[in-house]
Design brief:
ten-stranded parallel beta sheet; mainly beta
Length: about 200
């Protein structure tokens, strides 16, 4: 059946439901796989262990609070991913890793995605100016599009594996960090500051 809660604490390795909706705080304290076709986390999420969010339809981190902690987030399914809040995973080996290919939308109150390693396999749409802070590596394997600004602030290397198309006066990529940038795809009408 459905799992609907104001506050959810996960202390077990497996959680399975038809739908998961958490309206306030969610905390994952042990390595866990959370499986439901649709998952919505409206409030703050704390991930203190490697956590797999397996959502075949939709995974939504709503606009309130932040996603934080010292663990990692793995997204293995091909469902759509909506990131409406900041993600600040502060462990030295923390990851935000998408192993599925669902479309990723970043908007709402999101302005910063921090994790040592970040991998996006699905197409990314930017509806908000977004800072990507990765101390290990940042990889876009699919297209990135929108009319907002990308800021690359981390010290990790950046791998662009497909087209990035940012439109409008604000549609630029600016590197404020120090990682090297490797472009395997092509940049379409996007000024890169400073140039590669």
């Amino acid at each position: 059946g459905d799992l609907k809660a104001k506050n959810l604490t996960v202390n077990t390795a497996t959680v399975t439901a038809a739908k998961i909706e958490v309206s306030q705080a969610a905390t994952v304290s042990t390595a866990a796989t959370i499986t439901a076709p649709t998952q919505t986390y409206s409030g703050a999420v704390t991930v203190n262990a490697d956590t797999t969010f397996n959502a075949s339809s939709n995974l939504t981190f709503g606009a309130d609070g932040t996603v934080g902690g010292t663990g990692s987030i793995i997204v293995p399914a091909n469902g759509a991913v909506s990131m409406q809040k900041n993600i600040n995973l502060t462990g030295t080996v923390s990851k935000f890793e998408q192993t599925g290919t669902g479309a990723v939308t970043i908007g709402g109150n999101a302005s910063s995605i921090e994790a040592a390693t970040q991998i996006y396999k699905g197409a990314v749409t930017l509806n908000a100016n977004t800072e990507f802070n990765a101390s290990g590596s940042l990889t876009f394997k699919n297209t990135v599009s929108g009319s907002k600004k990308i800021t690359l602030s981390g010290t990790g290397n950046v791998n662009i594996g497909n087209n990035i198309t940012l439109n409008g006066n604000n549609g630029i990529i600016e590197q404020t960090g120090s990682g090297s940038i490797t472009i395997d795809g092509s940049l379409s009408s996007v000024p890169l500051t400073p140039p590669v």
